[in-house]
Design the sequence.
């Protein structure tokens, strides 16, 4: 008996909270691309009532340094941002050369790692280790991990080669 009255009281409490929250929200009207909660203004402009769901509006911003009336002909993507330091051609060539040498050393490391992984993988039949002779599933799990590692390393090598390809040719 006590449980039933408690449940009834809890249900009425939840219902009253739902009623309070429903009254707390105002109607939101949509007027084209604008929204308002002013009913008088909405009636004048012929706006429609928005039904269901919450509405969040985030004001847009203009990027710093952008001017509204400028038209540069679409070549702004090739230009450096305003206020960035100008780099001389010889300095840029030195930076490109340094980047190339770093990428080439990373490529050599990745290729040697790939050769090591392929040697250990042994064409899909690596040597069993310790408990793997008694537990075949451990062996299969390790083989799957080796395949995944080889695939990740191949992807790394391809990415490094793409980056090297993007650098200007050596003079």
Sequence:
């Amino acid at each position: 008996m006590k449980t039933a009255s408690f449940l009834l009281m809890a249900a009425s409490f939840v219902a009253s909270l739902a009623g309070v929250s429903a009254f707390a929200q105002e109607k939101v009207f949509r007027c084209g691309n604008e929204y308002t909660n002013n009913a008088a203004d909405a009636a004048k402009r012929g706006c429609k009532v928005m039904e269901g769901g919450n509405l969040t509006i985030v004001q847009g911003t203009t990027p710093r340094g952008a001017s509204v009336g400028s038209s540069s002909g679409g070549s702004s993507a090739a230009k450096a941002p305003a206020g960035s330091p100008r780099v001389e051609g010889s300095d840029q060539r030195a930076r490109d050369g340094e980047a190339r040498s770093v990428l080439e050393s990373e490529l050599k490391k990745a290729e040697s790692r790939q050769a090591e992984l392929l040697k250990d993988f042994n064409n899909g039949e690596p040597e069993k280790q310790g408990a793997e002779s008694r537990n075949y599933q451990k062996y299969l799990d390790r083989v799957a991990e080796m395949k995944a590692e080889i695939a990740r390393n191949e992807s790394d090598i391809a990415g490094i080669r793409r980056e090297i390809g993007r650098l200007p040719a050596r003079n």
The chain has four helices and three strands. Strands lie at 29-31, 34-36, 48-49. The first helix runs from residue 2 to 24.
